[in-house]
Design goal:
seven-stranded mixed sheet; four-stranded antiparallel sheet; 11 strands; mainly beta
Length: 119
């Protein structure tokens, strides 16, 4: 049974940092590309970042390039998203997803973790 459980969200001031974690079970993260997707209030889902199967390549939406870093720990079967220099427009529910249909094409999602950037 595939499960993805996100954690690490919260309330942070503009310019602050958070690290999101996504604990996976029922499959091995190193065998799949993985993504982070976010959904802001009143908006549709937005793909944020992905890491390829081998872990050698990472991808980001322009809005977060240079501020966010995706990584994974194969020993812990966990995906991460380090978010620095956070802006109010980063406020959203953040989901991790397994790219079972190829890079950026998700077949399983977690329940999400809320990130709120506000002073």
């Amino acid at each position: 049974q595939v499960q993805l459980v996100e954690s690490g969200g919260g309330l942070v001031q503009p310019g602050g940092s958070l690290r999101l974690s996504c604990a996976a079970s029922g499959f091995t993260v190193s065998s799949y590309a993985m993504s982070w997707v976010r959904q802001a209030p009143g908006k549709g889902p937005e793909w944020v970042s992905a890491i390829n199967t081998g872990g050698s390549r990472t991808y980001y939406v322009d809005a977060v390039k240079g501020r966010f870093t995706i990584s994974r720990d194969d020993a812990k079967n966990t995906l991460y998203l380090q978010m620095n220099s956070l802006k109010p427009e980063d406020t959203a529910l953040y989901y991790c997803a397994r790219d079972g249909y190829g890079l950026g094409h998700c077949d399983y999602w977690g329940q999400g973790t809320q990130v709120t950037v506000s002073s």
